[in-house]
Amino acid sequence: MIRIVLAEDQTMLLGALAALLRLEEDLDVVGTARNGKEALELCRTLRPDVILTDIEMPLMTGLELAGALAAEALPSKVMIVTTFARSGYLRRALQAGVRGYLLKDAPAEALAAAIRSVHAGGRAIAPELALESWSAGEDPLSERERQVLRLAGEGKTSGEIAKLVHLSEGTVRNYLSEAISKLNAANRVEAFRLARDQGWL
């Protein structure tokens, strides 16, 4: 049996995905999580073979989860299942050690086959994304720039961001300024939109 943990913040989708996978004789959904931090805890305790996660989730994104699993040398192979067909996300996912990247509109049998492939040591990437990924531009943002820009995009002020990431307000403004400059944006709102559309957040 291939032991799977699912991480998805939309309850109905989480239930539907679990029910679909449980129809497969060789797949066993051993745990479900509503955010990235819950998923990380489940991976620490249950040590599933595969973790299926969305990208955008509360508390910890799917990409941050993949990075945390790699940093802790946990054995679970990570697969992203998302609505976001953005080449920037795919590149960052591969850099984080993700083994599979599928879109949520993929047929159920394709998802099951991808899980088996990843479990066996292969990769499973949505073909339309794989092609687009290598023609897209490089992500110019550093991790800190990405972090503060994401928070700015949520409407937080420089002071609020500074408290959340434990930096001075001046340093936060510098990171935002760098991100705005790298993206040739007029302001932080436009920079956030441009980075989000490219999948760099």
Q: What gyration radius follows from the Cα positions, in whole Å?
A: 18 Å
State which percent range the strand residues make up: 5-15%
For the sheet with most strands, the description reads: 6 strands, parallel
CATH topology name of the largest domain:
Rossmann fold
Query: What's the multimeric state?
Result: single chain
Helix content range: 40-55%
Organism: Zemynaea arenosa
GO biological process, one term: phosphorelay signal transduction system
Modified residues (4-aspartylphosphate): 54
Domain Response regulatory: 3-119
Question: What do these coordinates show?
Answer:
This is Response regulator transcription factor. InterPro entries: CheY-like_superfamily, Sig_transdc_resp-reg_C-effctor, Sig_transdc_resp-reg_receiver, Tscrpt_reg_LuxR_C, WalR-like. One of its GO terms (biological process) is phosphorelay signal transduction system. Residues 3-119 form the Response regulatory domain. The protein contains 10 helices and 6 strands; from the N terminus they run E-H-E-H-E-H-E-H-E-H-E-H-H-H-H-H. Helix 2 packs parallel to helix 3 and helix 7 (143-153) crosses helix 10 (188-198). It has 2 domains: 2-134, Response regulator (Rossmann fold, 3-Layer(aba) Sandwich), CATH 3.40.50; 143-198, Arc Repressor Mutant, subunit A (Orthogonal Bundle). With 201 residues, it is α/β, with parallel strands linked by helices. The mean pLDDT is 86. It has helices at 11-22, 36-46, 62-71, 87-95, 108-119, 127-135, 143-153, 158-165, 169-182, 188-198, and strands at residues 2-7, 27-33, 50-53, 77-82, 100-103, 124-125.
